[in-house]
Inverse folding.
């Protein structure tokens, strides 16, 4: 077994573009859940509309890349408003059901045959990132050290996405350490108390949903640019659950939680995946084989979620003291 | 998580990074063409078609080489330099049984490769066009992952409507289908609503309990070889461990008890594994889905099938009554368990117990186990509700993918209910299986309603669902009632799964798709009320089906979800919910 | 700001002067009302929880709202402060109509409430709890929050004010602890101090003494009287009769949602209707219909 190779692959995926994209989406989720206490189980919906903002503007109408990115972000904002205005007045458990339903509903609509002229139906849209790759300043070749190397387009996506993650984290830090963030954190503890002090609770929740939604949409935009092609079925509810697992692993309500969660989780996932694959090739796995490995990994994410909540609800960088306080 | 995204990316990354040879080739600016061809008869995305050849030609038409798909349907080809390449799928290499499928977008595709670019080439095998959607281009309804649509099509739905019939006839036909679908949703959703009422928890794993029921029934009705025996072995081991634990509670130290329980569990697991590996074909056995004692006349068969479970239940209850006071308190439950097992074994031997009943019992047991060993301890630890939601999502993922690993991603239907002659009822045509579903569902719903309305336990359940604290303070054993609610819900969801499987198809994601409709149903009817879930379930089924009269059937579920959101806007407490503030 | 102990129950100050001459009967008009309610009705299902024909609260007084369990005190509080809808009726605060205003809008008008079950924001520090309450912060706007220099000075002055209030409520040493680590009594104090950060002209205290140890009760009472002496109107719900009689300038008695009596403590003490209502309520406590219980349950549930 090429153990070092597996380690290198895992590290590569932990710092690779996909981990960065996920970190970006988790930052949005952290805004919703970690700071505001909103139970958003439909973050993938924001990624979907973000990705399709690019997909439809660039892929369907042939507009320039900048328009696509703008459209993606705008779509995220719009979805936040459309989703938030009816549902944010409801109790948390209703919001949870609504968000997951809306995200799935959006996927049904985007993949439906009648929308094919715009969205490409189940086939999605291809060739979306030419404009993005033209901007790539790295000459072709491979970059990195040792076994951890990236091709120039991947390096370019990584640099852009991790920069976005950095900017998003700074924005989050600034927001949270401001009076605005204080109100938001107050909401997480007790809405009524905040309302009794003269704050417009609904407006703040909507703002929080919009900010987090824009980060989610931005992650979707980066998916479109990174893969150059998107299909509706990659935006399944499981993506949201992965985001939740990563957020809780890193630590909800911490600025660095999303980044750490994404990096660590991708390392673990790739590592177990590669280990299982290697063991499978050597015939060490009696029950599962080939195609079932993916399922084993999904089951593993479920197990991680359960164990995290039970044994370490504060995540890797959370504050144990805060978690011990009995909220509500 | 979109497995395609991840697997494709990881595969590409891994392929590039791990093998040094690739690095050299890549250094010159070439890329890798890759793709994955999924098995259209399987819904698991990783189930690929093996052995399809893909030729790669450069822009002058010279063949550069051929890639062949592996077991997962994946293939890749390294091209030496940027440029335009033509990829041709050799249609002759598509396996015989898949030849009837259409290849989209086309066998021959052109692909531009930029520097360092690793494009993914999309090939799909889809079912050839059927109903009037030819103008829409290739139908996606049979793609590898469009389970929800397939599921919708597999049943007695929109496709069966005769376009030339008068609208009223079409309407009646679709409404009947909607009623069947709605009853299935209602059966499964009652438990979801009751669980929410008693514990305030949204059980995201409910859909997967539905899948569990359907798959168990499939397992025992198509041939429970190694796997079925293993599962039964495990169940027996767990039941024994629990029973022994109860017996030893005051008689032995906790260390001894845990050791004995652990030993029993380990023995059970080892035994189940051995049975699973060694048993195989030689221990093959099966029961029919609903039970078939083979008495010679169907009336007698039916009577036995109905009577035997009733007798078993009565025997268990009677044993409890008789033994109470005569033997030590903590031996009553294990002895009742023994009666239950003996009864079930006898019923199985008689052929009176069908796979559906086994599935319902296993489903009830699974749910009771989850409540007893996951949710109750978590509630006692004062874990915040939000975190319980997340745990239930984790449990859902775990359960769903464990089932996927055990049963595979293929679709199946119960052997006895595959093709049936339609029965004409006026303008409506109904498959006998749909009639059976309606009868069973209505009977069960009425029974559940009677149970809730008239029995002591049922009243207690409603009281706890109504106001947990008040119920607790008025002397109801809330923990026990909650356990009963979970047991009942587990059984009902398993039954819902069986009916759903009869109605449409059995598939590892069926429950998750039903879950969203169940959410819609319980919100429509009123979260936490059992009757609301029944009404809401039927309404959602009707809405979903009736929408196909005017709108594309792919949007069925979207309409159901839209109804839910409209309901939340105008009457958030639902049709039958009590008005209380939910904002 | 000082924390001088004030004489309990003292009827000093110009504002209270007016109340001394008002005749004690339900719905009586006050010379200088800050809060005027007319025909308020709120029912749940078939149960009328609140049915107040007319109620006025005199500016600058301590008014107590009392009544047996399930009398609708909390519902009335919720209705008045915008935390619950009203079926019919209207009410004005300082001459402005409050009908249909949301809770936060009512608070901004200067009527700030506390809760029966304290709602300390547990994972925020005590100081953050206080700062959150300060009104009109430009840094609370989403985009404004990025312009640190624009709100830094405001934050400093708010911090000073918060510091003074914490000092007064003897919580200053806890300022950097998270509010979840406070004791029950300290949470009550924090909640009151936090309400004062809003600069209210009227505070509505929902059972401020419930579950507080006797030593703290004294100091809470002092704080409440001090508020009145500074010109803040206080309306509070309480069960402890000694407390109520000792501190209130005016008492409103609610039973089954209606105002059955109001007046000065000495009027109420001798009011036969009140005695009947309380005794009656105690008398058939056990045999009371499930209706009141349900109403109570609903109230509890919110």
């Amino acid at each position: 077994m090429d153990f070092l190779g597996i380690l290198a692959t895992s590290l590569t995926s932990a710092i690779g573009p996909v981990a960065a994209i996920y970190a970006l989406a988790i930052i949005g989720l952290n805004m919703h859940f970690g700071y505001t206490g909103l139970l958003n189980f439909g973050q993938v919906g924001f990624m979907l509309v973000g990705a399709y903002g690019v997909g439809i503007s660039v892929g369907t109408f042939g507009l320039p890349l900048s328009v696509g990115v703008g459209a993606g972000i705008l779509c995220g904002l719009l979805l936040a408003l459309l989703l938030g205005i009816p549902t944010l007045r409801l109790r948390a458990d209703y919001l949870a059901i609504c968000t997951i339903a809306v995200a799935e509903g959006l996927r049904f609509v985007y993949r439906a045959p009648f929308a094919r002229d715009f969205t490409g139906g189940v086939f999605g849209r291809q060739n979306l990132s030419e404009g993005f790759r033209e901007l790539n300043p790295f000459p072709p070749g491979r970059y990195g050290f040792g076994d951890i190397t990236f091709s120039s387009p991947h390096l370019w996506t990584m640099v852009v996405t991790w920069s976005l993650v950095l900017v998003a984290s700074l924005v989050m830090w600034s927001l949270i350490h401001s009076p605005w963030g204080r109100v938001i954190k107050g909401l997480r503890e007790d809405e009524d108390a905040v309302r009794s002090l003269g704050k417009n609770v609904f407006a703040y929740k909507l703002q929080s949903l919009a900010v987090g939604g824009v980060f989610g949409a931005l992650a979707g935009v980066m998916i479109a640019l990174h893969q150059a092609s998107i299909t509706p079925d990659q935006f399944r509810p499981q993506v949201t659950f992965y985001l939740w697992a990563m957020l809780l692993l890193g630590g909800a309500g911490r600025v660095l939680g999303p980044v750490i969660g994404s990096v660590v989780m991708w390392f673990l996932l790739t590592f177990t995946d590669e280990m299982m694959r290697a063991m499978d090739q050597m015939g060490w796995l009696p029950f599962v084989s080939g195609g079932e490995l993916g399922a084993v990994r999904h089951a593993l994410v479920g197990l991680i979620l359960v164990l995290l909540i039970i044994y370490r609800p504060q995540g890797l960088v959370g504050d144990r003291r805060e978690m011990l306080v009995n909220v509500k | 998580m979109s497995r395609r995204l991840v697997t494709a990316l990881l595969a590409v990354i891994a392929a590039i990074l791990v093998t040094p040879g690739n690095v050299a080739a890549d250094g010159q600016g070439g890329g890798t063409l890759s793709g994955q061809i999924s098995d259209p008869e399987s819904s698991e995305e990783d189930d690929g078609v093996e052995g399809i050849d893909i030729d790669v030609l450069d822009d002058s038409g010279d063949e550069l080489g051929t890639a062949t798909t592996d077991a997962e349907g994946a293939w890749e080809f390294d091209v030496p330099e940027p440029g335009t390449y033509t990829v041709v799928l050799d249609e002759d290499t598509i396996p015989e049984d898949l030849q009837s499928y259409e290849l989209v977008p086309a066998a021959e595709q052109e692909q531009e490769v930029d520097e360092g670019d690793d494009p993914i080439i999309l090939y799909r095998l889809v079912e050839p066009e059927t109903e009037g959607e030819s103008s829409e281009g290739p139908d996606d309804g049979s793609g590898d992952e469009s389970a929800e649509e397939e599921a919708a099509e597999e049943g007695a739905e929109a496709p069966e409507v005769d376009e030339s019939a008068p609208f009223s006839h079409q309407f009646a036909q679709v409404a009947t289908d909607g009623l069947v679908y709605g009853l299935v949703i209602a059966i499964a959703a009652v438990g979801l609503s009751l669980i929410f009422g008693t514990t305030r928890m949204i059980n995201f794993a409910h859909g997967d309990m539905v899948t569990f029921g359907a798959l168990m029934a499939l397992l025992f009705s198509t041939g429970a070889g190694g796997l079925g025996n293993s599962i039964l072995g495990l169940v027996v081991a767990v039941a024994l461990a629990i029973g022994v634990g109860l017996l030893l509670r005051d008689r032995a130290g906790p260390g001894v008890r845990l050791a004995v329980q652990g030993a029993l569990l380990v023995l059970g697991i080892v035994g189940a594994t051995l049975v699973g590996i060694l048993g195989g074909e030689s221990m093959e056995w099966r029961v029919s889905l609903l039970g078939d004692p083979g008495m010679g006349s169907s009336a007698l068969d039916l009577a036995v099938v109905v009577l035997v479970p009733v007798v078993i239940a009565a025997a268990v209850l009677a044993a409890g009554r008789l033994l109470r006071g005569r033997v030590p308190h903590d031996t009553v439950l294990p002895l009742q368990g023994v009666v239950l097992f003996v009864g079930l074994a006898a019923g199985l031997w008689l052929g009176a117990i069908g796979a559906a009943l086994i599935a319902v019992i296993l489903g009830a047991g699974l749910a009771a186990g989850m409540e007893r060993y996951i949710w109750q301890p978590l509630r006692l630890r004062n874990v915040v509700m939000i975190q319980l939601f997340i745990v239930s999502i984790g449990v859902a993922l775990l359960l769903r993918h464990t089932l996927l690993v055990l049963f595979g991603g293929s679709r199946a239907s119960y052997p006895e209910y595959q093709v049936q002659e339609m029965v004409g009822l006026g303008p409506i045509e109904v498959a006998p299986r749909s009639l059976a579903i309606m009868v069973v569902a209505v009977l069960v719903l009425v029974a559940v309603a009677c149970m809730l309305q008239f029995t002591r336990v049922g009243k207690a359940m409603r009281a706890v669902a109504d106001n947990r604290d008040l119920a607790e303070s008025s002397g109801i054993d809330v923990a026990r009632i909650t356990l009963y609610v979970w047991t009942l819900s587990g059984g009902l969801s398993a039954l819902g799964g069986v009916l759903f499987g009869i109605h449409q198809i059995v598939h590892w994601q069926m429950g998750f798709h039903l879950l969203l409709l169940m959410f819609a149903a319980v919100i429509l009817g009123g979260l936490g009320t059992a009757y609301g879930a029944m009404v809401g379930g039927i309404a959602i089924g009707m809405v979903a089906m009736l929408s196909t009269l005017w709108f594309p059937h792919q949007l069925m579920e979207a309409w159901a979800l839209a109804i839910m959101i409209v309901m939340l806007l105008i009457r958030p407490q639902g049709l039958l919910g009590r008005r209380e503030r939910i904002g | 700001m000082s924390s001088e102990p004030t004489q309990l129950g003292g009827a000093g100050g110009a504002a209270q002067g007016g109340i001394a001459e008002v005749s004690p009967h339900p719905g009586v008009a006050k010379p200088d009302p800050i809060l005027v309610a007319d025909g308020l009705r709120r029912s749940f299902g078939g149960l009328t929880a609140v049915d107040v024909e007319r109620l006025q609260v005199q500016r600058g007084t301590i008014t107590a709202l009392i009544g047996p369990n399930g009398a609708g005190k909390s519902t009335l509080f919720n209705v008045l402060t915008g935390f619950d809808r009203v079926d019919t009726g209207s009410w004005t605060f300082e001459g402005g109509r409050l009908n249909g205003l949301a809770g936060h809008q009512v608070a901004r008008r200067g009527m700030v409430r506390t809760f029966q079950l304290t709602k300390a924001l547990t994972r925020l520090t005590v100081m953050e709890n206080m700062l959150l309450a300060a009104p009109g912060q430009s840094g609370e706007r989403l985009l404004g929050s990025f312009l640190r220099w624009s709100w830094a000075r405001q934050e400093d002055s708010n911090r000073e004010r918060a510091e003074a209030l914490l000092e007064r409520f003897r919580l200053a040493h806890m300022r950097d602890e998270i509010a979840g680590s406070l004791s029950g009594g300290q949470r009550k104090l924090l909640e009151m101090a936090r309400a004062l950060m809003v600069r209210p002209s009227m505070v509505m205290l929902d059972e401020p003494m419930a579950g507080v140890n006797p030593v703290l009760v004294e100091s809470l009472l002092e704080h409440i009287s001090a508020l009145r002496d500074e010109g803040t109107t206080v309306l509070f719900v309480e069960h402890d009769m000694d407390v109520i009689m000792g501190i209130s300038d005016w008492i409103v008695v609610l039973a089954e949602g209606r105002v059955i009596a109001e007046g000065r403590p000495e009027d109420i003490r001798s009011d036969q209707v009140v005695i009947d209502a309380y005794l009656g309520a105690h008398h058939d406590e056990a045999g009371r219909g499930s209706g009141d219980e349900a109403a109570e349950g609903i109230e509890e549930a919110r």
